[in-house]
Amino acid sequence: KGRLINLPSIAVIPGDGIGPEVVNEGLKIFNYFNNEYNLNFKFEEFNLGAKRYLKNGELIPESILKKLETFDAIYLGAVGDPQVPAGILEHGILLKLRFHFDQYVNLRPIKLLNNRFSPLKNKGVEEINFTVVRENTEGLYAGIGGFLKKGTADEVAIQEMVSTRKGVERIIRYAFEYANKTNGKVTLCDKSNVLTYSHNLWLRVFEEVKTEYPNIKTDHYYVDAITMKMVRNPELFDVIVTCNMFGDIITDLGAELQGGMGLAASANINPDTVSMFEPIHGSAPDIAGKGIANPIAAILAVSMMLEYFHRDDLSEKIENAIKIIIEENKLTPDMGGKLTTQEVGDEILKVLKRG
Ligand code: ATP
Ligand code: MG
């Protein structure tokens, strides 16, 4: 997993709204490790987002896209701005990068760092620690379909669910490789009892790939059943592999279980091209510029990046430091604290320096 790299280079896209504010804190932590452990990561910033678009209509100029191809990863804040019609920046930047680099894995760790922010806090749930591996390029989100007799009483709208053997196999294989690292279990989440073509392929490919990993345990849940289990027995799961739409839905459920958007990071991965790491929240224009954005999700995105580059040790240090500041309530207002974005970053840094 991950390319073997001597001098990893990270393209930083701070983006819009609170994006630059939280990315700044993420880079503060990254720079500390870079110096402390001689990591030799190189960073270069790219200004993409609302400002550029409003100035000259540019989303990602071809020259920047070409330049980004030479990096190992992208660290993204958020894009989105009330002055730009919804969807333009998301399609023109986020989805553009995702498709250009064929980032077929959406990786979403669901980890309970402190159960005080989880809706399950009074339910006796102690441990939530699993990762959703969501297929990111096809399925029901492939954009294929159309209307028949549009606008009439007999109108029919068709949205096709496209699953290719290559697409299904590579995501399932990624899930097994990921589980292999931690001796985890792989759970297939589908609806093969009803989606008898598309998810029948998933089921067959899962069975095939499984035989190559005889040491890895597996199980299988239909998506409706898994939502119940995620709430009732989240400790059952290690790695859940699922299609694009189901992944979309269960990762939001997971984000709430772990304590909300302020604590959720994700990665869009293609181990052979350029992968992108980001907090799941958006640009939050309502709080931009006030210095109160919660930087934890962006810092967890840095933790995911370090894990991707095989520094699980440093990734764990970040998580532990975050656990400590949550315990001490050194947090921004959205999590009930009184600190600013920068102060939270500083507190995490302080814990890291204490070692
Ligand atoms: P976008 O259009 O880019 O998705 P958004 O306004 O929808 O931006 P979201 O990230 O979806 O922003 O967040 C919804 C709301 O949650 C925000 O308006 C903000 O009040 C709050 N929020 C989101 N992220 C954070 C954060 N990191 N810290 C504090 N509050 C946040
Ligand atoms: Mg939003």
From TrEMBL:
GO molecular function: 3-isopropylmalate dehydrogenase activity; magnesium ion binding; NAD binding
Keywords associated with the record: Amino-acid biosynthesis, Branched-chain amino acid biosynthesis, Leucine biosynthesis, Magnesium, Manganese, Metal-binding, NAD, Oxidoreductase
Gene Ontology BP annotations: L-leucine biosynthetic process
Keyword Transit peptide in annotation: no
Record has Manganese as a keyword: yes
Cofactors (names): Mg(2+); Mn(2+)
SMART domains attached to this UniProt entry: Iso_dh (SM01329)
EC supergroup of this enzyme: oxidoreductase
Family: Belongs to the isocitrate and isopropylmalate dehydrogenases family. LeuB type 1 subfamily.
Subunit structure: Homodimer.
PANTHER family on file: D-MALATE DEHYDROGENASE [DECARBOXYLATING] (PTHR43275)
Protein name per UniProt: 3-isopropylmalate dehydrogenase
Organism this protein belongs to: Defluviitoga tunisiensis
Gene: leuB3
